[in-house]
Amino acid sequence: MAERMVGKQAPRFEMDAVLANKEFGKVSLEENMKNGKWTVLYFYPMDFTFVCPTEIIALSNRYDEFEDLDTEVIGVSTDTIHTHLAWIKTDRKDNGLGDIRHPLAADTNHVVSREYGVLIEEEGIALRGLFIISPEGEMMYSVVNHNNIGRDVDETLRVLQALQTGGLCPVNWKPGQKTLTV
């Protein structure tokens, strides 16, 4: 039986990554926490696929909005940093990513994908999981869906903003609307 993650401390991670400047580096939850940042951690199945670039590019295109919300965005697959870099260096018209504004991390040993409950063991790839983690390291939001379906950046931003209100947000709450009072 799967164990609940929301409301608990998120599994800590440090992974090799291709940074936005196309250099190799590291990303870690501890670093984001130390800097008082929220974390949007999303997993995708593989580089050089078809749905994945639509999501990665859409998240990158909205990066300023995440940055304005003191949030670091990190994409993760089980591919290597070298494959990530090759995909970034591939033009978008050729199913590449081109320049993106957030890091892509490499979970080649599958530890992080397994800890976050998104690893398809028999295939060695991740499901599409998205997690929002507070600056204190608490897992605030978790959604996992089938690999055939891309995620909605507007909804990710809406949920992040709702969580940052610290209030009770009713159904269909949108940024700028009042929260509920008790």
Helix content: 25-40%
Count of helical regions:
6
- Extended strand count: 9
Largest sheet: 7 strands, mixed
Which sequence of SSEs, written as H and E, runs from N to C?
EEHEHHEHEHEEEEH
Q: Average the pLDDT over all residues and give the rounded result.
A: 96
Radius of gyration: 16 Å
| Global geometry | globular
Major sheet: arrangement of strands: 2-1-5-4-3-8-9
Please report which band the strand proportion falls in: under 5%, 5-15%, 15-25%, 25-35%, 35-45% or over 45%: 15-25%
Low-confidence stretches: none
- What gap, in angstroms, lies between the N and C termini? 35 Å
Structural class: alpha+beta
Enzyme class: oxidoreductase
EC number: 1.11.1.-
Organism: Cytobacillus spartinae
Family: Belongs to the peroxiredoxin family. AhpC/Prx1 subfamily.
